[in-house]
Amino acid sequence: MEETKISVIIADDMLPIREYLQTVLSHEPDMEIIAAVGSGEEAVAVALSAYERNQATPHVVLMDLEMETPRAGVEAIEALSQKAPGVRCVVLTHFADDETVFNAFEAGAVDYLLKDASVAEILEAVRSAARGMSPIRPRIAELIRKEFQAMRAERAALVSTLNIVYRLTPTELELLRLLAEGKTQKEITEIRHIAPSTMRTHMANILKKFAEPTARDVVKRLKRL
C-alpha cells in the first residue's frame, strides 16, 4: 500500500523563497507541494479547500508572517486553527523577537523556524508537524522559561498587593477607591469632609503599607488586580 504523502503549502510573498522551498521539498518522496502562494489569504483558501477534500491526508503550511500585511501570517494561522484544525502551520520567517514568536504560537503555530534554518531543519519540521508533533527548540524553550519566570514574578506581586489590601482600614480602602476613580486628594477631602492634615496622615499610612513613593504608584498596583 502506497504511503500517504504530506501535502505541503508554501506561503511567502518573496518569489525566490517560494521557488527555493519548492525545489527543496520537491525532491522528497514523502512530500507533495499542492500550492505555493504569496499571501496569507491565499494560504487559508488553498489549505481549507485541500483539508475539506481530504481530511485524512496530513496538511502542512510553511508560513511566512509578514506578507500582504504585517500580521497576515499570524491571522492566517489563527483562521486555519479555527476552521481546519488538522492543518499544521510551521512558521518560516526572518522575525526572531519574543513577541512575534509568542503571537505565532498563540495563534496556533506548531513550530517556528527562521529563514536561515538548514534544509534538514525545514524537512524535519514539516515531517514532525505532519505527525502531529510540536518540537520544542532550544530558543523556544528559553522563551517559555522566561515567560514562566515573568508569570511567577507577576503572581508574587499580586499576592503581595492582596495581602496589603486585606490590612487596609475601611477608610483607607475608600480613599484608594476615590483615587482610582481619578479624584485628587483635594477633591477627596471635600467629598469625605475631612481636613487636609487628616488626608495627609491617611495617605502617609497607605504609602508606608505599600512601600510606594506616591499615591499614583499605589493606584497602578491596584489596577493590576
What does this structure look like?
This protein is an alpha/beta fold. It has helices at residues 15-26, 40-53, 72-83, 98-107, 119-130, 138-166, 170-180, 185-192, 196-210, 215-223; strands at residues 6-11, 31-37, 59-63, 87-93, 111-114. The protein has 2 domains: 6-135, Response regulator (Rossmann fold, 3-Layer(aba) Sandwich), CATH 3.40.50; 142-223, Response regulator (Rossmann fold).
List low-pLDDT spans: none
Tally the helices. Answer: 10
What is the average per-residue confidence, as pLDDT, rounded to a whole number?
A: 89
Rg over CA atoms: 27 Å
What is the number of E strands? Answer: 5
Tell the overall outline. elongated
End-to-end gap: 59 Å
Helix/sheet category:
alpha/beta
CATH class division of the largest domain: Alpha Beta
Any idea what the CATH superfamily of the largest domain is called?
A: Response regulator
Profile the largest sheet.
5 strands, parallel
CATH architecture of the largest domain: 3-Layer(aba) Sandwich
Question: How many structural domains in the coordinates?
Answer: 2
Strand content: 5-15%
The CATH topology name of the largest domain reads Rossmann fold
Key features of this structure:
225 residues, alpha/beta, Rossmann fold, 2 domains, five-stranded parallel β-sheet, 10 helices, 5 strands, 13% strand
Summarize the structure.
The chain has 225 residues and is an alpha/beta fold. Helices cover 59% and strands 13% of the residues. A 5-stranded parallel sheet has the order 2-1-3-4-5, with helices on both faces.
